[in-house]
Structures are given as structure tokens and as C-alpha cells.
Amino acid sequence: MLRAFHTPGCIEAGCDEAGRGCLAGPVMAAAVVLPPDFTNELLNDSKQLTQRQRYLLRDVIEREAVAWAVAECSPQEIDRLNILRCSILAMQRAVDQLAVRPQHLIIDGNRWMPYPIPADTIVKGDATYMSIAAASVLAKTYRDDRMKALAQEFPQYGWDRNMGYPAKAHREAIRQYGTTPHHRMTFRLLPEEQLTLEL
Predict the structure, then answer these.
(1) Which of 2, 61, 63, 199 is deepest in the core (most CB within 10 A)?
(2) Does pTM surpass 0.90?
(3) CATH number for the domain including 67?
(4) Residue 74: burial class (beta carbons within 10 Å; 0-12, 13-18, 19+)
(5) Would 186 be classed as within a structural domain?
């Protein structure tokens, strides 16, 4: 069972992101404030859940959370600022959109940037605290929805299946068709070609 709060007695929001390792699409993040009495036996790190479980939980989280929000950084921002900064910036944007102002933040991971609300970073936080796990579910499902929508526009890349991650079929499509405005141009989109020397 995941823990309810890191710092009891205050309004605490959990934050997480999805899509950090992708070659295409935004990095998306969520912030969630859960009620003190919230429990859900299914809730876990989104990577440990099936797609069906994630979408079931999304409905529960959106219905029962005190507040929740989802935000993003675009591929262009990722290319300009770098993926680590954009992962944090997307989480901060999600917190900014919360209907309730938290007094404390718990962040999945080990890096954070200056922000007006006190925060603790927690490695494997999405497998430790309910609010971070809830944020991981929202970030993942909303990003999957975005990639499925983009796949309608660019079907050849298989984003409805690989969600923009560096799957073999995705890289083959980049090799064959080139890039789109949704690709992160500062990422290594194709493995470096092996050099052959003519003797």
C-alpha cells in the first residue's frame, strides 16, 4: 500500500512527468492533491499498471482529488531548454494550474528547480506516495491520448502504438520519411551509421 503523505498536516501535491525518453511529442506532467482519507488498492506507479487500469484510475483521480492539473513542454521547448529542465518546468506549470494552492510538493525523481513552494524530491516516489502515483497516471494517460491524436496526422510513425518512444519501427519511419514538427531534434533520432572504410 502506498503512503498517503510525506508531510502530514498540510496541503501536499504530488508531481510526476511522462515522455521524458521519447523521440517525439511533448513531455507532459501532472500535479495532484488528494484528500486526507483517499485510498485505492489499485493505485500504483503507472508503469506497473495496464492501460485499462490507468484509464480506470484516471476517472477515480479526477473525480475524487481535491485538485489536479496536467501541463506540458513542447518539443521546441525541449530542444531549446533540454529535457531535464522541461520535465521540471512542466511539473511547475501543472502546480500553477491547480485550483488549490499546495503548501508542500513531493516530486518523483532527484532534481528540481527553484520554485515558491517548498518541495522534496523522492526517487521512486511514484511507487511510494499516492499523490505522485496519481500524478504519474494522469501524465501518462494524457500523453498517450496526445500521441494517439498525433498519430492520426502522421500515421507512418506508429505513435498510437509506440507513443513516440524509440521503438525500432519508429526509428525506421524516421529513416524512411524524415522528421516532423513533433520530433525532438536535439535527441539522437537515429543510431549513428556504422562507418565503413574503403581499402
Answers:
(1) 61
(2) yes
(3) 3.30.420.10
(4) middle
(5) no
At 192, the pLDDT band (50, 70, 90 cuts) reads low
For residue 13, give the H/E element and its range. strand 12-18
The answer to whether 18 and 46 are in contact (CB under 8 A) is yes
Q: What is the mean pLDDT of residues 45-63?
A: 95
Spatial distance between the Cα atoms of 10 and 129, rounded to a whole number of angstroms: 15
Q: How many domains does the chain have?
A: 1
| Residue 119 falls inside a structural domain | yes
CB 151 within 8 Å of CB 158? yes
Q: What's the pLDDT tens digit per position in 75-88?
A: 999 999 999 999 99
Q: How far is CA 77 from CA 81, 134, 148, 165, in A?
A: 6, 25, 21, 18
Task: Supply the range of the domain harboring residue 97.
Answer: 12-145
